[in-house]
Write a structure and sequence with these properties.
Blueprint (H helix, E strand, L loop, with lengths): L1 H15 L5 E4 L6 E8 L22 E4 L3 E7 L2 E6 L3 E4 L15 H9 L10 E7 L3 E7 L4 E5 L4 E15 L2 H7 L7 E3 H4 L1 H20 L11 H20 L1 E13 L1 H16 L2 H20 L5 H44 L1 E2 L5 E2 L16 E2 L5 E2 L15 E2 L6 E2 L16
Parallel strand pairs: 1-3
Antiparallel strand pairs: 1-2, 2-7, 2-11, 3-6, 4-5, 4-7, 8-10, 9-10, 10-12, 13-14, 15-16, 17-18
Length: 422
């Protein structure tokens, strides 16, 4: 009769549940953050337990936890025990939770006490594993240009960035309670990253703004992956680390592109920086004049008209070229004189008669004397106090090479370029 058979089936299933099992993590790749435990060789023909009920972990079963894995044991959806230590663990229904916290310490036990929660399926026993390795190569990209004020260009620039970042689970119990969906047997971070991408991009913008405040040039941002990760970690501490149990480990920017207006500003500033050099500017002026003459001489009306065009262009451009060249030549001459004066000022004569350029005499080893200063009483001095009246040396600067002086202390003479004594 049906009732007997059902009773026998129930007894048989209960006895089968007493057979020991070995449970370990399911497939866990470098992008997997969570998976359920699976019985080792569950359907092996050499095994004896093929009648056990699903959702029942036999008393005395063994759970194998690998390196960088966090194991949770749940009963009816409630976390009843966990371990962050690798090894083999025996399931014992008679003992209290052991809570092997590993390197996480007491903080993990405090979290355990806070997040005890019940599930919807009574008498459901499960084993879960969380990956504690760094989860790498998570792609990101800015859908719209983000602003970046660059002090070097003195302009608000806009960039798009594309790259990869990595995260690490630092509070596995919080991560399990707040981040992971409970209806999945396996979760890769790419499956849930869309939920946090907007937060990541907001933190990315905040980190860029902080880098801008710290004076990092926009062209150097792509090489500042570690600094960027630190900025973002501090920005996301409250939302990700404290509330969700995960942190940003690194941010790698693969490419940066600028919008058209930013490109124009950057190119204009770079050209201006190049033309500030009089030698470069002189070459640019001469080249521009030559191109103008060539264009003026290209006349479809014939050779005579072409020669007339060249003559008129030469007369018209000659005055401008001459004036521009004279300015460039004067500036180049001034730079050359300043360098020569600085080189001359760098030479000093030791008491032994040897001329030197370094901080010490190459002959006797004496230290280079101070550049000297003149006290208000008229005495010439080299020390910090006047040898005649005892007055303290003024805080300003005076160049011993060309005589330039200032009430403000400077390191180099603005007239001749010579290095001034401290």
């Amino acid at each position: 009769m049906g009732i007997i058979k059902a009773a026998v089936s129930a007894v048989g299933g209960g006895l089968a549940d007493q057979w020991l099992e070995v449970i370990e993590s399911g497939p866990m790749s470098d992008g997997t953050v969570f998976c359920t435990g699976v019985a080792v060789r569950k359907n092996d023909s050499r095994g004896s337990n093929r009648k056990g009920s699903d959702g029942i972990i036999s008393n005395g079963s063994v759970i194998h936890v690998g390196e960088n894995q966090f194991m949770l044991l749940t009963d009816g959806g409630k976390v009843v025990d966990y371990t962050a230590e690798p090894g083999y663990f025996l399931v014992n229904n008679e003992t209290a939770p052991s809570m092997f916290s590993g390197s996480f310490g007491a903080a993990l036990k405090e979290t355990f006490e806070r997040i005890k929660f019940g599930g919807v399926s009574p008498y459901q026993q499960r084993v879960f594993f969380i990956n504690l390795q760094e989860i790498k190569n998570i792609p990101f990209g800015t859908p719209n240009p983000v602003n970046y004020f660059d002090n070097f260009y003195n302009a608000e620039l806009f960039l798009r960035a594309y790259g990869y970042y990595s995260i690490k689970v630092t509070e596995p119990l919080k991560f399990y309670a707040e981040v992971l969906p409970k209806d999945r047997d396996r979760v890769d971070f790419k499956d849930i990253q869309e939920m946090y991408l907007s937060e990541f991009l907001n933190a990315f913008q905040t980190a860029l703004n902080q880098m801008s405040v710290d004076g990092i040039r926009i062209s150097h941002v792509s090489a500042k992956g570690m600094e960027l990760a630190k900025y973002m970690s501090s920005t996301l501490d409250e939302d990700w680390a404290i509330n969700r149990g995960m942190e940003i480990q690194s941010v790698g920017i693969k490419s940066i592109s600028y919008d058209e207006e930013s490109k124009k500003l950057i190119n204009m500033r770079n050209q201006g920086a190049m033309l500030s050099d009089p030698s470069v500017r002189e070459g640019y002026v001469q080249g521009a004049a030559a191109r103008g003459l060539e264009a003026a001489g290209s006349n479809s009306a014939g050779a005579m008209a072409g020669f007339m065009g060249v003559n008129m262009a030469s007369q018209g451009a000659g005055g401008f070229v001459a004036a521009a060249s004279s300015v460039n030549q004067a500036q180049m001459a001034a730079q050359a004189e300043a360098k020569a004066a600085a080189a001359k000022a760098a030479v000093w004569k030791c008491r032994c008669g040897t001329e030197n350029t370094g901080a010490f005499c190459s002959e006797c080893g004496a230290k280079k004397p101070d550049g000297g200063w003149k006290c208000s009483c008229g005495a010439e001095n080299t020390g910090k106090f006047c040898t005649s009246c005892g007055a303290k040396r003024p805080a300003g600067s005076r160049c011993s090479a060309c005589g330039w002086s200032s009430e403000e202390p400077v390191k180099f003479c603005p007239e001749c370029g010579a290095k001034l004594a401290e």
